[in-house]
Amino acid sequence: MPRYSILIDVSKCSGCHNCFLACRDEYFENDYPKYSAAQPLDGQFWMQIKEIERGSYPQPKLSYIPTPCMHCESAPCMDAAKDGAVYRRDDGIVIIDPDKAKGQDAIAAACPYRVIFYNAATQLPQKCTLCAHRLDEGEKMPRCVESCPTGALLFGDLEDPKSEIAKLAAEAKVEALHPEFKTDPLVTYIGLPKRFVAGEVVMQDTPGECAQGVNVSLSGAGLDLETQTDIFGDFEFEGLEKKVNYQISISADGYLSKQVTFTTHKDVNLGEIVLAPK
User: Fold this and answer.
1) What is the pTM of this model?
2) What angle is formed at CA 192 by the lines to CA 25 and CA 156, rounded to 5 degrees?
């Protein structure tokens, strides 16, 4: 029996909203008996695109996190449902029965991810079904995955070791969104935004010129990373943990080395770091 999942690579998401639009096209005014009632035009986002603003001028970042139903293996919505109104299929997909769930607003309230929506007009909790109706008809993937132009969404069977999703899940650092919820979601992520540090190196004796190719290293929290400044003299380290002390070391032939320490209470911009000649 398959165990279906979506693995989302945040670094590949451009925020184009194609997945959101494909979901809306599939479900707006379309009933799929036993799977889902029609999605209303307003107030429901079965595939949300969360925008995360990071850093500060002049080196800001914007990350996008596609967020469908997580199809949790420890699903709070199932615990809140009465009379089997929410159930998990053998393939792992969590379904809200559109007949049994009528009037059960507690199902929507139980979701810690806020990806179940209560339709006041029909008195139904509603959410993403991973396009279970399509899969049962023989389609290979949900509409959101099919529509993604960058390959940020990968769908497949985790139980099939030959599947692309199973191989990537075994090789990459896969994370849950909000692991503190402890819901064991089937939908997982690669590259969720963490802290980053950025800065610019300037040579004291050549003001106004970009310091390209300067060696920059970062240490702390078990990390030992190295990079070089780009053609603008900028450098960056991504994937740092929150509230941790790190040290940056900068060196170039003919110049005095420099060390800078910082704590990742937030994303850090070190600004200009000036190297003096020996």
Assistant:
1) 0.87
2) 50
